[in-house]
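#dry-run=false #mode=assembly
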Amino acid sequence: MLPAPGVFHFLWEITSGAVQEGATVRTIGRLACYRLEDSEVTLTLRHGSAQHQLVVLTGFVEPFLPITGALYMTLGECESRGDGDTVLRARVLTCVEGVNLPQLEHAVSEQRRFFQEREGGTPTPHTTTGGPC
Amino acid sequence: MDFEEEPPPKEWGLDPFFFMFAKLYIKDILELKPSKLGRKIHFYKSHPVTKVEILGAVVFKQEREKFTCYGVDDSTGVIKCFCWKNSRQNKASDSGQSIGGLPMARQQQELQERSTLELGDLIRARGRVKTYREQMEVSAFSYCKVDDPTLEVQISWMREVPRLYRKYYDKPCLGSSAGKRPGDTGSDGPLTLSKLVALMVEQLREFLRESKVSTFSLQDLETVDSLVSVACRPLESTPTEEEAEIAASNAKRVRHVFTHAAQKLEEEGLAFVKKCYPVKVYQVTVKDQELLRVTRQIILADCKLPHNADQGCHFLSVFRSVTERFRSVNKAALRQVLDALELSSDIVSSTGSHYVAF
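#status=ok
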């Protein structure tokens, strides 16, 4: 009856296919555009030199106030579209403009490192990719 | 280190976990093990958990007349949190007067708004953990919606909780026996002869405290199965030839361990040598009634002397008099005797080294 927990993944991890279809994820990105007629939002985030983007289906969370360029945190299930792209069907969408992104990244990595240590039994090198948060 | 064994109920209160709202991950709350003695207490490793604090997003909501059930997701798991309505809303209506000049209905409405959460809101709840139909749930004592527009609260939670786990939650409680079990040498490193002797000293202390034994010889100790099994533990490291020789023979090892452990107890004053021939017999210091009686009489007599009228008699003068009768009692043993007499209110220590008897 309860939904699955939304494990935190960075935008580039979802678009690169590291997340399985149907998995519940939490992620963060900037609102690039909002297509009201399709109930879709495109979230983007820069990582290194690349700009990653993810389509988020907002059918369940409308109406909401879209602020172009603002950071949004979303929680939902990953789905695969016909053309092979991954989209996120959001159940929660909140504006978190003003968040300290590097601090958030660091906190998420710290938490992941802790979980890896617990499972592995030994400390593992710091990593920002792969594995649940 | 495996300390997953459930500690006995008398030690639960020694663990701060028993009283605090533990900030556990929801995944760990869902996997808490119920106590073998009852379902109201649960264990995280060897820590007794009764109450938790959770922070997470509301991903599920079920409204009922007397409570609202929120599904709270902290990214490790989702748990049901029951937030009871009556106490919060009835407080405003029972007060009889409006507080702060606001009309009653508006107050109630504000209270309701603050305590009603929607999907996606961040909730912080503190409450009791319980099991219902094999599922863990939280019954909240208090809860509130957290305004976290820049994720500061969630970021600090993500940094704080692993630190709590590493520093406290994943370690055994220091005061309990889970922290120092008989099988545990207490530190890393192989079991050597000296560590085995130290282990035996602890075991002997406990044995003498709990049993009615008043005198013992080394041969008597060799008849106690629990002590012999500890003494027969195989050594993992024998750095010297002498130790290797002792370790090679069971009988030698047992004799060596018991001899040295008894000597250590003698140094600590917990036992003294009562007689040496034909067999060395040790007396447990505080169980020697004759020694206690004589010491008390000595202090009583000494206190009547004029120069002892103010503070009582000094430890050293008592020691001198006692050793005239009991030659093998050392200073540590006399301290044990004086502590025992003070516990039974026969004497009082006026300073750290002066005693008065009644």
